[in-house]
Amino acid sequence: MEKNNNINFTHWFFDLDNTLYCANSGIFDQIHIKMGEFISSNLNVSLKKAKILQKKYFIENGTTLHGLMLNHNVEPGKFLDYVHDIDFSIVKPDNELNDLIKKIPEKKIIFTNANISYVEKILKNLNLENIFDDIYDIERMNYLPKPNLKTYKKLISTYQVDANKAILFDDIPQNLLPAAKLGLKTVHVYNKKLDKELNGRSKKIDYMTNNLKDWLQKWIQKN
Ligand SMILES: [Mg+2]
Questions:
Q1: The domain 11-21+93-222: what is its CATH number?
Q2: Which of 127, 130, 140, 168 places its Cα 20 to 30 Å from the Cα of 101?
Q3: Is the Cβ–Cβ distance between 20 and 128 less than 8 Å?
């Protein structure tokens, strides 16, 4: 937090899952089961093989969906409808975090590899409806997920952002690197439960925290 604390950001971009709430405490478990079922029945493979493909595509392509689209011509809407048909009620609000997010006066935008209907359901359960200025979801990315550099360039041009005055929060370091390359400040919201293939550190990332509330609190105090 010591460096760059005098920047007035115009745009704050937030990933959703495992950044604004802990998806690893139930939501991802349900989605992973549904993904396995979908892949098994649509690709006509065993559940065991489906699980291997699910993880392989996630790691290699940014999302399992992108790998399925590239390798098997899977129709995205069909996949997303199936895997997001889950119990969202287990997602609960964190009022302290919400109060801090509401204190950010500049543009606040969700930047996620999920799709809009999923994002809206999660935000509703988090009591964060109508708090963000916009949601930049996988459909707006033309299904080209983070960490594809083209998607970040499109994001910047969409909002006409001066990259040096924008900041991105994400739990996956690889998703921060293209943003850092384009000049955005980056915050790795560290999550011990994240798959070890996806975790890691990089000197190109500006800040690292295992507690988004603490980070925002300190920022607000200093600015
Ligand atoms: Mg995430």
A1: 3.40.50.1000
A2: 140
A3: yes
